[in-house]
Amino acid sequence: MANIKSQKKRIITNEKRRMRNRAVKSELKTATRRVKDAVAEGNGAAAYAAACAACRLMDKAASKGVIHKNQAANRKSGIMALANSVATAEDKAAYVKPAPKAQKTGSKKAAAKEARKAAMAEASAEKAKRREKQLKEEKKAAERKAKEAEEAAKAEAEAAAAEAAEGEEAPAEDSAE
Prior knowledge:
rod-shaped, RNA-binding, 2 domains, 177 residues, 5 helices, ribonucleoprotein, Small ribosomal subunit protein bS20, single chain, mainly alpha, Methane Monooxygenase Hydroxylase, Chain G, domain 1
């Protein structure tokens, strides 16, 4: 096992690349087998279509560096020779190139960021509603408290006035005696 940090990282990246290359090579073998099966059946149109698809995969693998470009050219030559042994001119003329797949715009990361942003906006709107409701309740509570304090002050003032009136009556009674 490596002791150097960069070498440890190199081991990890090499393993990732090896697994990716294995998948691509497996795909190439499958494409080649499809061509051979179509030739064995004697189906020229299917053989030609499979050969064209295999050639595209070979070019892709060569551009990614999975196989050497000369090896890709050699394999393509062999596959096309095999397909041409069965395919007729009508088969080649009838071949329709498959429509390119629509490319996804952006990335998963951008999509996740947009989703997070939307969730945050929704949560913010919900929080604003709750905050508004809380402020209304606090305002009502403050008004109710002020009203109760006002009533209590009024009642206290009345009680003080009544006590003062009673206090005036009491000395008058004392003087009457």
